[in-house]
Write a structure and sequence with these properties.
280 residues; alpha/beta; Hypothetical Protein, Haloacid Dehalogenase-like Hydrolase, Chain: A, domain 2; five-stranded parallel beta sheet; globular
Length: 280
């Protein structure tokens, strides 16, 4: 539903998605977003981020917002501290056998495949769709390999990539049927199909960060725009969907902020639904 005022009780933690929520489509943290995060801090509300990005792809965002809590990468599959050097708090890696089935099925269906470990992004077609877009998002270049199959140990995420959104939707259904309970299969964008360990979902991120802070999950608020954000909505005490979220994602949230990530929707959501400053 679309709410008009904030909750009666402020949460202890706001956990935010990044792409499509915290940053603009050009991957920019706006002044309004930065100020909203600062307002949370002044109100005594902790702030953390979760994303399908690898850990290295979240480091710049965490640094820019001075986030001191662990970051939840790979949809919660790898939770890293912000110490120097960063350390793994919790991780759920994709078994190699499941990775092999995933890679082979995606190839069979004509869907480009990317493989992510903690520090590498592997692919076969550097001129494939969305490669330059992803390089700008994560902030590092891919490693080109002839065959992905020898590189499936220590994998945090496998991504099916296509400009044919209907094909990717069919691929999502096909992988869910084939992999069953052996993996989490969900689109983080219309053009990205994420395959991770079954416990690597953003609901896991809510549970891990609540345990880290010693707070109940009912004291956690979440905000996001993607299908992979529904899992964290289900675990949190308060959930907010962005105005640019798909109808199914909005339907899973407690509130929907009218504005999109291009219209400072995150900042509006913080002021209205978290801090209770009034109408969104």
């Amino acid at each position: 539903m679309t709410g008009t005022s904030g909750p009666h009780r402020q949460p202890s933690l706001l956990l935010s998605d990044v792409d499509g929520t915290l940053v603009t489509d050009d991957k920019v943290l706006t002044a309004a977003t930065r100020e909203a995060v600062a307002l949370l801090g002044r109100a005594g509300i902790r702030f953390a981020i979760t994303s399908s990005r690898p850990p290295a792809g979240l480091a710049a965002v965490a640094q820019a917002l001075a986030i001191d809590l662990p970051i939840a990468a790979f949809n919660g599959g790898m939770i890293m501290s912000q110490r120097n050097p960063p350390t793994v708090v919790e991780q759920h890696l994709l078994p190699a056998a499941v990775g092999l089935r995933t890679v082979e099925l995606l190839a069979q269906w004509g869907i480009d495949t990317w493989v992510f470990t903690a520090d590498r992004w592997l692919l076969q077609r550097p001129a494939g769709p969305y490669v330059s877009h992803e390089e700008r998002t994560v902030g590092f270049a891919p490693t080109v390999v002839e065959d992905l199959r020898p590189h499936l140990d220590g994998v945090g995420k496998i991504v099916g990539v296509s400009e044919d959104f209907a094909l990717l939707a069919r691929g999502e259904a096909g992988l869910r049927q084939s992999l069953g309970d052996d993996a989490s299969v969900v689109r983080s964008q219309n053009y990205y199909l994420d395959v991770t360990h079954p416990r690597a979902n953003k609901g896991t991120a809510v549970l891990a960060l609540a345990a880290h802070l010693g707070i109940p999950t009912s004291a956690v608020a979440t905000i996001g725009d993607g299908f992979n954000d529904i899992a964290m909505f289900a675990q949190a005490g308060l959930s907010i969907a962005m105005g640019n979220a798909a109808p199914a994602v909005q339907a899973a949230a407690d509130f929907v902020v009218p504005a999109t990530n291009e219209q400072d929707g995150f900042a509006q959501a913080v002021r209205c639904y978290i801090l209770g400053e009034g109408r969104a």
